[in-house]
Amino acid sequence: QQRNIVTLSMAWPPDRGSTLSHFMPTNNQFPSLGGQPSNGGSATQYKPTSTLVDIASAQGTQAKLAYHVTGSKKGGFPVTVEKRNCGKNVTVIRNVVGDRSALLSGLKKKMGCGGVINQDGSIEVQGERQHAVEKFLTEMDCLKSVSSKAKKLAAPTKAAKAEEPTKIDRKMAAARAPTNKGGPAAEISSMTEQAAKKMKPAEMKAHLKAAGLSIQGNKKELLARLLEQIKG
Do residues 130 and 79 make contact, with C-beta atoms less than 8 angstroms apart? Predict the structure, then answer.
């Protein structure tokens, strides 16, 4: 048995010598391991580029516009409608600072019309579009020195949708209302003013809707409509 072991160690690895050093990775094969090459070559080292760092640092930040529009001295929009020699009206935007081409491109895309940049730096688009232009500038948040009142008039916030009574509200309204064979109108007429004043808007809407009346308006308007039907 000892003789066989010696023979095996002498025969392995074939034609590579009797040691394992040949099969160990060298620095020339894997320079990224950080060692120095044995043959005088240069090891390749990884260096992170500044582009990746810039992208990582820019995450979560909103890109700023390359232009802005300054308001008038009184805080109004520097937007007017003017008539040209050919008799056609154009909308002119003044006090534009920065990339005027970008602003013009956005206006043309939004308005669906043509436009040019004048020599004095102002921008004009075809047609009477003062309100639409003011709304666009407000929504783009590119205005400076324009009063908040003017911005609200140009782009008013959407009114909240009237709240519709849920199934639970209808059931509660039906449970509180006295039973009457005369139908919904008779139920309202038999209701007391004190009971109506204690109701929530959703309950008032349920009664009004059951009687075929309008459910639009605030609590005060709903109550007035309900009391009018009760007194009716």
Answer: yes
DSSP of 127-194:
SS-HHHHHHHHHHHT-EES--HHHHHHHSPPPPPPPPPP-HHHHHHHHHHSPP-TT-HHHHHHTS-HH
96 contact partners, CB below 8 Å, separation of at least 6 = 67, 68, 69, 103, 121, 122, 123
Q: Where are the beta strands (DSSP E) in 63-139?
A: 67-70, 79-83, 89-93, 96-98, 115-117, 123-126
Helix (H, G, I), strand (E, B) or coil at 201: helix
Instruction: With 0.85 as the threshold, say if the pTM is over it.
Output: no
pLDDT digits (tens, 9 = 90+) for 83-131: 988 889 999 999 999 999 999 999 999 999 999 999 999 999 999 999 9
